[in-house]
Structure formats: structure tokens, C-alpha cells
Amino acid sequence: MGYSMVEPHAAPSMTIRELLREPYVVTDGAWGTRLQAAGLPIGACPDPWNAEHPDRVEEVASAYADAGSRILLTNTFRANRIAMQGTVWESSIDELNRRGVAISRRAAAGRALVFGSIGPSGKILMTGEVSADALGDAFREQAAALASAGADALVIETMSDLDEARIAVDAARSTELPVAVCMVFDSGTRHDRTMMGRTPEQCAEALTIAGADIVGANCGQGIEGFVEIGRRLRSATDRPIWIKANAGLPETNGHAMRYPGTPRQFADAVPSLIDAGVTFLGGCCGTTPEHITALGRSLAEYFRAA
């Protein structure tokens, strides 16, 4: 399929500010595991596929829009200068991010808003692997590319280090786009701490002060574990809460990896998540368009009955 980064796209049916006033919003599901199903080797970086296989990337985004996602992310999770250091794409950060936005815009076709995905650097700030200044520069470069390409908002996701997340929020705010930021809580005896030991309350409070418009959590565990995390985030901020859970914990069979959580299990968790104060709901690793469809139906039924 031919692809142009400057091809016109349909305008979304509502603005991000209007979406923030909705009682609930269905986001999208996994990207990495869906791209692996389309042929991406396990362990390979997905972002270069924006240039190498844009048709396969667009198929993932389109499937989520068809499933009812009101927000589509971009395939730009690793598209920052630090994560791409030493690869042939190190000097093409702007291109990868622009192509990522264009692909998701094309797939959305006016049905969804596009949130530019910003992932972690892959380096540890506290050990000196990377400096705060270098992180800030890399995140500002990526945020600017996503914003200038037409992203409606930015989502900083899968963050384990609160300090890195705060640096990313500051960088993203320079674009004046709305900013969502999500931490990973998968450590501690109750799986309610980040890798650095921070609690949901600590993260929600710090990220609110940093200027995040939406605060949340993604990855790390199945949807049932996010009910209490969502409630604790909600208790420490007045910002909307964003949750994207895995389809359970991965199971390996030889070289293959599968996630056991079913669409039905996702749907069954909806009442508890809404009662916990969650507004934005979607999926992370292992989830599929079928998980998103089930999520949307359960949410619609919940609010019809309310």
C-alpha cells in the first residue's frame, strides 16, 4: 500500500476536551503483541514498521477503531533518540513519529482521537545511565514531532521511574497538548508498587503536580489487579483515571508466548473499575480487538442500567 505522511485525514467527531467530560472512554488495546501476530519478530522494535510496513501497522489501528476505540495510540512507543541510539533510525526520530501519527490518523478516519505514544528511554536515571537533561531533550524532540504531525494528545506510558515520568510530562507539556501519563505497578508483595517502590498515591499526587491532565496505570498485570490500583490513584488526584491492563500474565510454551485473559474476563471487571473511579479503559499486552469490543459493550450496559 502506498502511504503519504501529508495525506488529508478526517477530523475527529469530538475534541479531547469534550472527551474528558464523558462518563467513560474506551481506548485501544495491545500494539506490540498484535504486530508480532502480523510478523514482527519477538523482541524486535515495532516503531520502524511505520516506514517498513505501514499497511500492517494501519491494520492494527483500524481493527481497534472498528472495535469501538475512541482513542487510538501511535506506534511510537520506542521512537525517542535514547531508545533508538545505535540503530539506523537514530537520525530519523522525526520521521518515525510523524509516520506513526499519520497511520493512526488514517485508521481513525474521524472515528477516534489519536494520542501520540511516548514510552520510557530504556535507561536508568538513578544509576547515571542517562542524565535528566538528556531525557528531557529526547522527550521534547519526540513530543514536538508527534504534536506537529497532528496528534490530539500525548500519552506517556509504561513508566517504572516516577522521576523519568515527571521529566516526560514536563517535555510533553511544552507542546500545549493534553497529556496522559501511566505508571507500571508490578512490584512488591501486593504488586502495587513501581519498580522503584512508589505507590499509586505517590505517583498520582506527583504527576498531578507535574501537570498531567490524565493519570493512570498500564501493563504489569491482569485487569483484576487494576481495580484497587485505580481506586488508590483516584483517591490522590482530581484528574481522570486511565487504565490499560494486560490480558493476564504471559505464559510461555517453547518459544511462543500467550496471554490467558479472555474478553469475557475483561468485560466482567468493568463494574468494579467504574466504581473505583476509572474513566479511560483499554488493554495492554495480549489484548485484542475482541477484548476492546467486550469492554465497550460492558461499559454501555453498565451505564444504561445506572
What string gives the helices and strands in order?
HEHHHEHEHEHEHEHEEEHHEH
* Tally of separate helices: 12
- State Rg: 18 Å
CATH architecture: Alpha-Beta Barrel
Q: What would the CATH topology be?
A: TIM Barrel
Sheet with the most strands: spatial strand order? 1-10-7-6-5-4-3-2
Residue-averaged pLDDT, rounded? Answer: 93
What coarse outline follows from CA principal-axis ratios? globular
Total count of domains: 1
Number of strands: 10
Q: State the name of the first-level CATH class.
A: Alpha Beta
Brief write-up:
The protein is an alpha/beta fold and 306 residues long.
Textual characterization of the structure:
The protein is α/β, with parallel strands linked by helices and 306 residues long. The chain has one domain (16-305): TIM Barrel, CATH 3.20.20. It has helices spanning 16-19, 32-37, 49-52, 54-66, 93-108, 132-148, 162-173, 200-210, 226-235, 263-268, 270-275, 289-305; strands at 25-26, 71-73, 113-118, 153-159, 179-183, 214-222, 241-246, 251-253, 256-258, 280-283. The strands form 2 sheets. Strands 1-10-7-6-5-4-3-2 form an 8-stranded parallel β-sheet. It has a two-stranded antiparallel ribbon with strand order 8-9. Helix 5 (93-108) links the parallel strand 2 (71-73) and strand 3. Helix 6 packs across helix 7 (162-173) and helix 8 (200-210) packs across helix 9 (226-235).
Write the layout of secondary structure elements.
Layout: H1 16-19, E1 25-26, H2 32-37, H3 49-52, H4 54-66, E2 71-73, H5 93-108, E3 113-118, H6 132-148, E4 153-159, H7 162-173, E5 179-183, H8 200-210, E6 214-222, H9 226-235, E7 241-246, E8 251-253, E9 256-258, H10 263-268, H11 270-275, E10 280-283, H12 289-305
Parallel strand pairs: 1-10, 2-3, 3-4, 4-5, 5-6, 6-7, 7-10
Antiparallel strand pairs: 8-9
Helix pairs in contact: 4-5, 5-6, 6-7, 7-8, 8-9
